Amino acid sequence: MAAIAPSADRICEAVSRLGSETAFEVLARARALEAQGRTIVHMEIGEPDFDTPEHIKEAGVAAIRENYSHYTPSAGIAELRDVIAEYAARFRKMPGVFKRENIVVGPGAKPLIWNTLCAVLDPGDQLIYADPAYPAYASCATYLQAEVTPIPLIESKNFRLDLDELESKVSDRTKVLVINTPHNPTGGVLLRSDLERIAALAKRHDFLILSDEIYSRNFYQGEFLSISELPGMLERTVIVDGFSKAYAMTGWRLGYAIVPENLAPVVTLFNNNTFSCVATFVQMAGIAALKGPDEPVRRMNETFRERRDRLVNGLNRIPGISCKMPEGAFYAFPNVSEATRDDKRLARYMLEDAGVACLGGSSFGKAGEGYLRFSYATSIEQIDLALERIAEHLPRFK
Ligand SMILES: Cc1ncc(COP(=O)(O)O)c(C=O)c1O
After folding, report:
1. pLDDT at 10 (0 to 100)
2. Which of these, 74, 77, 59, 63, lies nearest to 111 by C-alpha position?
3. Sheet harboring 126-131: ordered strands across?
């Protein structure tokens, strides 16, 4: 996370507590190199390279033509909230458990992470999260002056949480535990036994789970399990999900939180105070996404699986790299510590010298030191080109 230093001229002190997503910075540098005539393989940003499925685009265009161009309620259009409630409960094998009143719609999952944490964290409260992790959780919690406690993921356990360490770090100030399964940046997936132990802790110590399930459709082995499915967990879980990854809709900006009923009006109040509501025609496209055929989502996922296998098997053939097979999301998180622990410098070298844009693992937290993150949401041809370039350039890295 790159902190912005407050300066004497008008920028407030609180800004120094904000983090940021390195992926956007690397993307900007990669584009600048392309403008100079370089060819870059883009594996830095976490977005499907597919186009949004046709029926969803058509619904968005039709909604604009039909003048869905006015404000909506801050929690979202009633029909969209109903459709999300129905889909989300069915997908999680608990038909009927969610109601419109549980659903808060936002411009992507990210603002709902922010607004949910704003609704629950006071200064001094403790937020626990995985290390490495998507940077938004710690950025928001630190901004709110909560205490953040990272818990390392264990590579030998396919990047599952160290639950003994988690148990030892829970305190009477623990307000929120963030889990993210499948996980960005490692592709790790928590097992039922992990979730059961986490659920028992949450109940014993009375804390909330923020379960970031944005990659719940990008799952390669078995069936997705949400912690909310475990007994007694519905009322203490906020699920964050959205359309960006499953439906290739990153730029549309559409996500949602599934929130216990008492909390939903507070998260909505933060919506009201910030973006007011999501673009109306985008919400209409969201209805079409969830009501329409599911086949495009499954097809995209099958393609991700092929790319995952190609990338990970290829990385493991390169001396100095070892890479666990990710079980979800669309990221590989190879261990490069034999070559260097300075992953950020290696990522810079890969971009500048090899023309492969990727991220240093430590931009997701200290435990990411000595790893790189590659997004395999790109074609097999580009993956092959990246592998060729990495194999050629890594031995020259000093
Ligand atoms: C773990 C995780 N959560 C949430 C998001 C936010 O997604 P969006 O705001 O596009 O819905 C991302 C995006 O990369 C992510 O990786």
Report:
1. 87
2. 74
3. 103-106, 255-258, 237-242, 208-212, 174-180, 126-131, 147-154, 160-161
Tokens of 80: 């969209």
Nearest atom, ligand 1, residue 109 CA: 11
Q: In what order do the strands lie in the sheet with 359-360?
A: 331-332, 372-375, 359-360
Of 92, 148, 75, 112, give the one whose Cα is nearest residue 238. 112
Q: Is there a contact between 198 and 226 (Cβ–Cβ < 8 Å)? A: no
User: In this structure, which residue's CA is closest to atom 14 in ligand 1?
Assistant: 46
Nearest CA owner, ligand 1 atom 7:
109
> So where are the chain's domains?
13-51+296-396, 54-291
Structure tokens at 202: 């949450």
Pocket lining: 107 vs ligand 1, CB cutoff 6 Å: no
Half-sphere exposure of residue 161: CA atoms within 13 angstroms, side-chain side: 29
Residue to probe by mutation, ligand 1, list 129, 214, 331, 376, most atoms within 8 Å of CB: 214
> What six digits make up the tokens of 234?
């519905």
371 vs 360: CA distance, rounded Å: 6
Digit-coded pLDDT (tens) for 131-177: 999 999 999 999 999 999 999 999 999 999 999 999 999 999 999 99
Residue 228 to residue 195: CA distance in whole angstroms: 9
Tell me the CA distances in angstroms from 140 to 119, 205, 328, 335, one per residue in order. 11, 23, 25, 28
- In terms of DSSP bridges, do strands 237-242 and 208-212 run parallel, antiparallel, or are they unpaired? parallel
Whole-prediction pTM value? 0.96
CATH code reported for the domain at 54-291: 3.40.640.10
Q: Are 310 and 384 in contact (CB under 8 A)?
A: yes
Please report the pLDDT score of residue 8 as a whole number.
61
Distance 25 CA to ligand 1 centre (A): 16
Domain 13-51+296-396 of CATH type 2.40.50.140: no
Residue 365: which of 202, 134, 200, 156 has the closest Cα? 134
Residues sharing a CB contact under 8 Å with residue 82, sequence separation 6 or more, in sequence order? 100
